[in-house]
Amino acid sequence: MPELLPQPARDEIDLSIVFSTLSDPLRRTAIAILAGLPDCTERNCVSFGFPVAKASLTHHFKILREAGLISQIDYGNRRASSLRRDDIESRFPGLLAMLVKELEQAGGIEKAVTATGKR
Question: Under the phi-then-psi rule, with left for phi > 0, alpha for psi from -120 to 50, and beta for the rest, what region is 76?
Answer without folding.
Answer: left
